[in-house]
Amino acid sequence: MPLPADPSRAEGSSSAGWRSLLGGPTDGAEAWLALGVELRLRDGRGANPWASRPQRSATARDVAKRTGEILLGIRPLERSAATGSWVQGTATWDAVRRSPTQYGRDRSRWFADLLSIARDTLLSGTAGDWLVADLIESGLLWGHLRAGADLGIPLVATQKSTSVALADRASIGATVERGAGGGLVVLPDVTIDGRTADPLDVRTIGHSGVYEVAQRGAQLRVTLAEVAVSESVHALLSARNGLAVPAEDESAFLHDAYPLLARRIEVRSVGRVELPALPAPRAMLQLSFLRGDTVKYAFEWEYAGFGRVPFAASGHAVRDPAAEESLRGALETVWTERLGEELTPTGSFHDVAAAEFVARVVPALEVEGVEVTVSGRRKTYNELTGEPEITVSTVESTDPDWFDLGVLVRIDGRTIPFEPLFTALSKGRKKLLLVDGTYFSLSHRALDRLRELIDESGGLDEWETGPRISRYQTDLWEEFEDLADEAVPAVSWRATAEGLRRATSVPAVTLPRGLQAELRPYQKEGLDWLAFLWGHRLGGILADDMGLGKTLQLLALILHARETGERRPFLVIVPTSVLATWRTEAERFAPDLRVLLRASTQGPSLGGTLDDVDVVITTYAVARLDESTFAGVVWAGLILDEAQFVKNPATKLHRAIASFPADVTFAVTGTPMENSLSELWALLKLTAPGLFASARKFREDYIQPIEQGKVPENAEGGDYRRRRLAQHRRRIRPLLMRRTKELVAPDLPAKQEQILEVELSASHRALYETVLQRERQKVLGLLEDLDRNRFIVFRSLTLMRMLSLAPGLIDPEDAKIGSRKLDVLLERVVELQAEGHRALVFSQFTSFLDLAAARLDAAGIPYAHLDGSTRHRQKVVDGFTSGEQPVFLISLKAGGFGLTLTEADYVFLLDPWWNPAAEAQAVDRTHRIGQDSQVFVYRMISTGTIEEKVLDLQRRKARLFTAVLDDEALFAQSLTADDIRGLFDA
């Protein structure tokens, strides 16, 4: 239904207001404007060349007589209100420019801009209020004239019987014909809108256009056209009747003037005139080889038949600037790509720079068509481009506390001389040139690190007696080992693994007599695989999903080892929160095992007590602090539970555990790779030290193509990545076993996951957007140096994540805004409590869990609460499992592992974390063996916030994990002979 009209609004409106929709002036408002065009006559020069020459309006007779100087004048005109004709009136340049209200803002601005365009190059030539268009140099004129038409500003001739128009297109050429006296005549050939114009009627407008004054009786037609007019073309048009070339000057004309003209416009011959072909430029490079690996060079251009000209620009008539610029661009690309600097026409190179120039740049220039001439004896240089292969070893020396350190570097199969290599490294050089012309880059991480390590191990000035390394510098030796492509521990491990070549499958073993449990089929397969590796004294990674009984399988392996003759103890290292779980599981499933719990550095001494111990269980913290004690025992085996704790090889913890002597090392974790393949490599370095001995090669061969998409030149990205992924999985296949709950526990109830989108309230959204803009500006300015500013950037990201949850977490003054997430959570919990369900509620932020606890208290809903500050952890867990509370609030860090909470069947993840594996572990607290109800998982996401970005990052990481470990359930299948051979793939 239409709204009723507002009488007061109608009375106050202008009766002509609607006419503004038409784009023209309204009654009593803006006046119409046009650009007046007039042919003007300026008198010829008198006796005084400096005297001002008067102008007047030119008549058709003046144009026909061709005396005096015809010019094109322009000025603003306005429409007469009385007659409707275009008149000068008060519309001067200044009046129009200064009166936007009278003439319209757009039109006033257009005339002001036109005046600026004209005055940009117009120093003189005004008569009254007329501007002389002939003198306007700026090419902006033409686009401005076309824009004027769009604004309703027409071109109007001020003289009767005269019309004016703006052409769509124009071109200028020239013809050369034989004159009556035997010489040549050069005539302009002008075409405007497809018709040929008489050169006598054409005049120039600066160097960007022309105008034609065509006369038909008493009628004059003025046509303006945009076309480039070079200096030579300008001179040709100014001659009007053409340029005469006497016979004796013909040769000079064809050599000097003709190329200059023909480079700019099309020049045709007429009759018996033969014009020479214009030569193309060719780049010439003169090389001079001097003593001491010095090469001088100079570039020139050569034009066939005309000789050579300098490489730099000059006014030589034959030169083709466009062709030279195109060729030079190709040469500069080659030069910059290979030398990393700008091309200069002349110069010299010395030492490595000379070698690189001759070996890499000169051949590439020749491919681009450069002709090379040489003076002096040309030397051959050869670049080694392969990866440096470094072999390090230690040999016992006469000093019992030192090893002699052997370092051998080979590139492309060639052994590099020791002295010049390390001299160059010590002096910080980028490349090294050997005496035979061989050279190679020193800008390689392995070589850089090699120099640093050698500096640290003794100093370059002491290398005359040979490099040495202290037996106590174990961390330094590990860095040498990481640097090398081949190291002694890697060779030793491969010799042990060689025994697998004779194996064709994993044999079944008898269940240990002391095992007080019935193994599920997949658990029995796990025991067989662990026993198979134990028998060959090789470690591995047991990466079963959470809740599939990994601890039980390891206890069965220890029993198997004891019953087959092993008397040395096993060392089990666990997180502090899992210490009690291992003891309980051992008492339940393997009561005959003698277990020693070492929960602190003040625990029982290991010396003299291990004869009566089968298993020592300690924590990662104790293992790091009491490294020397554990390193002093030769263990039968080392078991690392929740091995993601040692995923960083740069930490003291990882180095400490690597120093513990053991026949085998087993890593146990449901998440062997949380963020990057490098974490999987860190575990394999402990369990299979020779599988991927070099971190550098692992990064180049696997991390860069699989994780980062980097591939070698001339390789197809997708295919190369798939090949490297397949090779990586084939290599680790025999040493990693992973089974998912979906694959091996079909009787486990279903798990249903859902994204629960929560919209922020209006006040919450406004505050979030305000803070987001502030933090975005701050973070974007810090990203150029992320390493230095990483903490500040992370703080901003954390701030935005907390603000997505509840403003009160950031500023108590904003607590009144509340949290929609807690509103939704409370609604769901009340409903679940009424239906008899129980829920786990996880968050990264303990402060947000405190807000949730306050809401539950207010609603009278009992709950358990566990975070890092909880003192009696097991008491809190028992309270929930006994059924006292329907809700368990858990911080993700404190409750991500070591808990079995199958009493719950609902899981709420209040905020997403960067790492999907951490969330998966939280969900697995309830979705594990022993659960008999369907599990519902809700990931609560605040829409339009940083949480959506975190969720996207989770999905990318999950795809990487699946591609490497879960695809086709590869690591859950029985081993074959081909799998075992994959250990030794190159």
CATH fold-level label of the largest domain = Rossmann fold
Helix- and strand-based class?
alpha/beta
Per CATH, the architecture of the largest domain is 3-Layer(aba) Sandwich
CATH class of the largest domain: Alpha Beta
Strands in their spatial order, largest beta sheet: 30-31-29-32-33-28-34
Helix content percent band: 25-40%
Morphology: elongated
Low confidence ranges: 1-29, 123-127, 394-405, 456-478
What is the distance, rounded to the nearest whole angstrom, between the alpha carbons of the first and last residues?
80 Å
How many strands? 40
Integer tally of domains? 7
Instruction: Provide mean pLDDT, rounded.
Output: 80
CATH superfamily of the largest domain: Tandem AAA-ATPase domain
Strand residues, percent: 15-25%
Task: Describe the protein in words.
By secondary structure, this protein is an alpha/beta fold. It folds into seven domains: 29-42 and 53-166, no CATH class; 170-270, no CATH class; 281-380; 384-486, no CATH class; 505-744, 3-Layer(aba) Sandwich (Rossmann fold); 762-814; 818-942, P-loop containing nucleotide triphosphate hydrolases (Rossmann fold, 3-Layer(aba) Sandwich), CATH 3.40.50.300. 37% of the residues lie in helices and 22% in strands. The strands form eight sheets. A seven-stranded parallel β-sheet has the order 30-31-29-32-33-28-34. It is elongated. The chain starts with 6 loop residues before the first helix and ends in a 5-residue tail after the last helix. Mean pLDDT is 80; it is low at 1-29, 123-127, 394-405 and 456-478.
